[in-house]
Inverse folding.
């Protein structure tokens, strides 16, 4: 075996070693994050009950089907808690770490809006376990109203018909 061959083998094995080391570190971080999340959820359950919320369900899964080009894909959405306080029902999401710094960030907002639309509760609670705080998140949706478009088309069409009628009656169009 020539020295150049050993160099190539060393580069290949070194690259594989680095790849598996990065993968191992990533897996370790994910496991540690999952452990932290589970621990925070257990503490959050007690905290929510102390704050007067009744736990209705934990990790309730709602199946969803997404169609892409006519092909169906099954998934599910799973919120941390469904809770009730008084007559109000909420979906509660527990957050820890840097995630709670900006509850209006796009990722968190999308997740909470998804929960709000799927679980159809009165509101969403963001449970900040870093600071032991419960944020009530409300959404005011202004969805485009297709009836307004139809009305504007009908008004434009009526105006055009009236204009043609005036021109015909006035003798401008024979």
């Amino acid at each position: 075996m020539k020295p150049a061959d050993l160099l190539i083998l060393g580069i290949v094995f070194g690259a594989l070693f680095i790849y598996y080391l990065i993968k191992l570190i990533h897996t370790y971080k994910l496991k540690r994050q999952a452990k932290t999340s589970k621990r925070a959820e257990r503490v959050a359950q007690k905290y929510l009950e102390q704050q007067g919320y009744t736990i209705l369900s934990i990790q309730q899964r709602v199946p969803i089907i997404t169609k892409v080009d006519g092909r169906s894909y099954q998934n599910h959405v799973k919120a941390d808690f469904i809770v009730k306080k008084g007559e109000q029902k909420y979906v509660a999401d527990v957050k820890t770490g840097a995630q709670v710094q900006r509850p209006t960030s796009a990722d968190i907002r999308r997740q909470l809006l998804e929960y709000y639309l799927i679980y159809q509760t009165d509101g969403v609670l963001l449970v900040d376990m870093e600071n032991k705080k419960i944020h009530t998140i409300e959404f005011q949706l202004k969805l485009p109203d297709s009836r307004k478009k139809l009305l504007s088309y009908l008004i434009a069409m009526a105006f055009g018909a009236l204009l043609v009628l005036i021109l015909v009656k006035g003798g401008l169009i024979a």
Notes: Strands lie at 54-58, 61-68, 71-78, 81-85, 88-95, 123-128, 133-137.
